[in-house]
Amino acid sequence: MPPDLPPEPELLVERPDGKPLIREGQTNRELLGGTWYFRQDDSFVGEDERWFEQDNLAGWTPVSVPHNWNAQDTTENRASIGWYRKEFSLPRSPKRARHFWKVRFEGNNYRTKLWLNGEELAFYTGYFPFEVLLKNLKPGRNTLVAEVSSLRSNSDLTHWRPAAFNGYGTGGWWNFGGVLREVYARRVDTVDIEDVHVLPRLARARGPARVEVRTVLRNFTSRDRDVALMLRLGGERYRLDPETVPAKGRRELRTRLTIRNPRLWAPRDPELYGLSVGAMTGGKERSTYRVTFGVRKIAARPGGIITLNGKRVRLRGASIHEDDLQEGGALSQATRMRLVNRLKSLGATITRSHYPLHPALIEALDRAGIMYWVQAPVYQLPTPLWARSGVRSLATRAATLTVKNNLNHPSVLTWSLANEPAEAGGNLGTYSPSVVSYIRGASRAVRQLDDTRLVGIDRQSRVGEPLTTGAHQYLDVLGVNDYFGWYRSVIDNRDDLPPTTTADLSKYLDDVHAANPDLPLVITEFGAEATRSGPETQKGTYEFQRRFALDHLAIHGSKRFVNGSIYWALRDFRIHQTWEGGAPEEYATPPWHNKSLIEETNARKPVFLPVARVFRRTKPLR
């Protein structure tokens, strides 16, 4: 054995075992946890050396998943490749049973190639969950191998900036690599319910709810199957007439239910319904899918007003990045719940993220009555990249997958298509025809999936840039990232203009509203870096941060057309090795973003309680 390899570990063959951490989904999912094996591949030789069919464990190290190979890195932010391997066995099926097995990865970063028993199964890209049929299972021991790459490209949707290692991989947050979320296995009996989407609609806030249920069925057998759905809601059962699902094919079935006097979901007052859908064929329920949903009515009114259940909203909260000092991007359930509890302690009624959060965390938002501004992972792409049709297609895919994977969560307020899409490069805030084309097409695609929520983007705010664009006509809401008095916030080519101050913010918001009078505004970012005590006038101090946050909140609150304020962010997180975030060099602590209300150590900054007092006394509905 080469001297640089670790001792060969004991080979453990285990069965799937453990309840899912996510409530939504098929009821027979089991964690594919226990002992996995990991092998780093910084030299990118794993495929050539065929690690995917290696029989022994030489070079592999036991780990558990979720796993993040650079979880505690604060210096390199190195894009690389890691290999994950699971030795498992499955229960025997009865003779003549039509049983199949699937494996589901809830989220890897960033590209995954999968093998089973040495044969390639699938390739998947992105932050999103994916499910794969295990095609070549054997009796007894099976070997599942996942090659996970965090290598990026110069047209990546989030991490397109040049990096110190391997070309590209720097973005607005640390490029964590690995199997960052749980892995599940489940048995499929003949016909599978792959997905269920629930869309409750209210014609008026006090009227009945018409609930549309979309069920995606897949027939794994070689002949057509007549499938009857059994829906269970609130103690009632609804058996639907059988429909034919073609051999080895899929079919989406749609049905509508009525809740005559629905209990409405609202911030700080969440009311939830449980629905299960069963697929029956041959007199047996073959698959069961469980979902939790809420009934509420979101609308945008003239004058730039958002209403929920017929009342004006005034939302307050802070954004989240999945980054922990010890766990990196592979957050544990305990860490996720700590973040939700911090939001509740803050008095938050809304949160936001640059990519869909872990579904268990979003489920916790549903239960806590905290709304969610969720963004497709499309971050500050330079205008020249938008001219590529392939980039626009990938961005639209990211937007639609964000919706498909999170549609059932009543906490979701907005599907945001991009963050600061014209921020980088020489475009000076003008949206090119290609950017407008993406927003037009993606907004249409999103509304085809979900017409009950708002579609938006988040724009930077710089004096001298256009106040409105050709893209705004395709939006229901506009996110405004506000750093007046922190960054210069002036168009790049106007050296004659002084840096903005907090005093300039009020007029700027009035001007944006005047240019878009019926487009609601939400402040999607505002904040100031802080790492120590000092003068209130000194950028980088806790005292400056406190004054900045309270002054900006007061201005936001004075505007009827500003429907919410989301502080950036809840807890400090890693960005890149040279990050200073606008703070003087002596106050910066690269790679940590320090604008948050909580340190990366989970200690509350002095700004937390004053902001919490404002949030707690702000009624979310008026």
Question: How would you characterize the overall build of this protein?
Answer:
- With 622 residues, the protein is an alpha+beta fold.
- The chain has three domains: 25-187, Sandwich (Jelly Rolls); 190-293, Immunoglobulin-like (Sandwich); 313-388 and 466-616, Glycosidases (TIM Barrel, Alpha-Beta Barrel).
- It contains eight helices and 39 strands.
- Strands 28-37-34-33-32-31-30-29 form an eight-stranded parallel beta sheet. Strands 1, 19, 20, 21, 23 and 24 form a six-stranded antiparallel beta sheet that branches. It has a six-stranded antiparallel beta sheet with strand order 4-3-6-12-9-10, with no helix packed on it.
- The protein is globular and about 80 Å long.
- The mean pLDDT is 95.
The amount of helix comes to: 10-25%
**Total number of β-strand segments?**
39
Distance between the termini: 70 Å
Low-confidence stretches: none
Q: What order do the strands of the largest sheet run in, or round the barrel if closed?
A: 28-37-34-33-32-31-30-29
The name of the CATH topology of the largest domain is TIM Barrel
Helix tally equals 8
Q: How much strand? A: 25-35%
CATH superfamily of the largest domain: Glycosidases
Q: Report the sheet with the most strands, covering strand number, pairing sense and barrel closure.
A: 8 strands, parallel
The tally of structural domains comes to 3
The top level CATH class name of the largest domain: Alpha Beta
* Proper CATH architecture of the largest domain: Alpha-Beta Barrel
- The whole-number mean of residue pLDDT values reads 95
Rg on CA atoms, Å:
25 Å
Rough outline: globular
Structural class: alpha+beta
